[in-house]
Every structure is written in structure tokens, then in C-alpha cells.
Amino acid sequence: MYVGDAGAAAQESVVVDVMPYFSASCHSGFHDGPDGFYAVYRNLFEELWQQEAEAAREQNMKEPRWTSFGKATSTDYAGLKDFYAFWTNFASVMTFEWQDMYYAPDAVNRRHRRAVEKENKKHRDAARRSFNENVRDLAKYVKRRDQRFQKLHEEAKAAQETRELLAKSQRRQKILDEQGTTTFQAQSWQEVSEEALMASLDGRLHQDAAKMTEEDI
Question: Taking 80 as the threshold, does the pLDDT of residue 154 lie above it?
């Protein structure tokens, strides 16, 4: 390992350490004050985003989309859902080249270079995986404690249940209406049939009466 490489050490030193934020001691309560829950985590996630945006620019990549953590008074449930969806599925674009164990240009031949690059990639991938997991876990940790999100989530859940009940009620009423129409039509057909039957019966009665009159004569 080329320990002491100033460039690699400098890069590693600027990577945001999220581990201290897995504790309630990093804030003084759920408010927007400088040391409040919402200010502390808003600043942290902005710092993480800036770190990713800078890494993307250095590699001529598209910057990650911006998602805002908001303030204590934020009521944008869709925005908060978007925020947590991004960070709980976070994938860093940083190279993690400071994790390299060997200096590739020192390789004595092509075979040696491939072995060096493979070893370096293994360490980079391990560091990236660990960093991604830490950031995702932090986002989940914050989400479970975000009183705004929990309140808005419950309200949205209740509203959705109300809409589903209303839709179910409307579907049931539609079925009843259709059944009522069908029953009514069946009764109409029955009434028409009975009228025809009565007319036929009346005709026969008239014929019988006429016949009996003729016989009496």
C-alpha cells in the first residue's frame, strides 16, 4: 500500500462521516434551531449531496437530483417521500480511489498491473458498499424519528382508507342500482305478459258468452 499518499489522504479526509449522527445526542430536540433535529439533519444531507455533486462534476457525470429535507413546519408529504426514497436507496458516485492498496503505475508488467487494479477495485468496492449502507441506514434512522413525516404519513394513510371506502361504497351502490333496474325490467315484462293473458282470457269469455246466448235462443 502506498501509505502516506497526500492526495488520497486529502480525499478521504473530506468524506462525510455519518456515524456520529446515529444518536439523539447530535441534536437538542425537534425544532429548527441551530442544534435542532431538523437543522442538524438538513445540513448533514445537504453536505452529503454537495459531496456527491462535486464527485459527479469531476467525472463529467450528471449531478444527483436535489431533494430537500425541509424544515420543522414542512407539510409537503410528497416531497418528504421523495427525499427518503432517494436517501434510503442511496448509491454514491464517488470513486473511493483513496482506498487503493497499491500504486498501479508501479506495476512491472501487464499481468502485474491487472492484479494491482483488481486488488484496488476490491477495496474501492468494499468502501463504497460500506458508505452506501451507512447513509441508507442513517436515512432510515432519521425517517423513523421524523415527527413531520410520521404525522403526514398517518394522515395520508387515513385519507387513502377513506377514499377506498368511498369507492367501495360507490361500487356497491352501482351494483344495487343495476340489480334494481334489472328487477324492474323483469317486472315490466311480467306485467306485459299478464296483460296479454288477460286480454286473451277476456276474448274467450266474450266468445263463450256469445255462444251461450245463441244456444239460449
Answer: yes
